[in-house]
Amino acid sequence: MTRPPDEWAVVSGSTHRESAGSGPGEGELGESGPGESRLGEGRLGESYLGAGGPGEGRLVESRDAPRRVVLASRNDAKLVELRRILAVAGLAVELVALPDGPDVPETGATFAENALIKARDAVRVTGLPAVADDSGLAVDALGGMPGVLSARWSGPLPGAGRAERDAANNALVLAQLADVPEERRGAAFVCAAAVVTPDGAEQVVHGQMRGRLLRVPRGDGGFGYDPLFLPDGQNRTSAELSPAEKDAISHRGRAFGQLAGVLRELLAI
After folding, report:
1. Is residue 173 within a helix (H) or strand (E), and if so which, with residue range?
2. Mind listing the pLDDT tens digit for each residue in 208-220?
């Protein structure tokens, strides 16, 4: 028997809604209903404690513990960022990382589809309510690309770490825009954020941040394409902004700010 997580948060309902936003890279989301496989259903607010031999246990109430929600990502930087955003929103949840294991293939054609793929898989693996995002850079001169391919734009790069992959992706985008004049270097960071509960309730929200791409990276904060991206109305790149400044205007900050309200409603917190 697989040992479930220490805390359960099982929510009633079977709605599937999408809150659409504007921005490149966003697409229509196909309907899908409840029925995702999951582990360890229990009453709201219960937790799992061992009893008997190895692998055996029972559900006992633990009503005072913070509600646990799993982030469908193993990206430490993203976990820190999203914890910070949800804390500012005043949401009383404990956001935990996805356990070690194989990554689910991101086969969706849109950010929304990929966010749902990841959140559904996290529910299946952990039995907890899950949040996930799929984010990327949509460059006007590249027809909205890299889009959903942003994290792997420069190819598979076997053995490369996060910093090496980011540097390779940035270098490729700069090369592709080498002859593009300043007035045509517009771009947007786009985020689709999804929440999925163990009983099959699902919702997706969107956020975006418009700006333009510089010719030389600036700043050592953030990750991904942040050193190249100058947000509209700013004279500093995303990598030069403080975490709080970035959260206030970023695509993820806007999307997860909306998602905080969705979580509050679905989990009754």
Report:
1. helix 162-176
2. 999 999 999 999 9
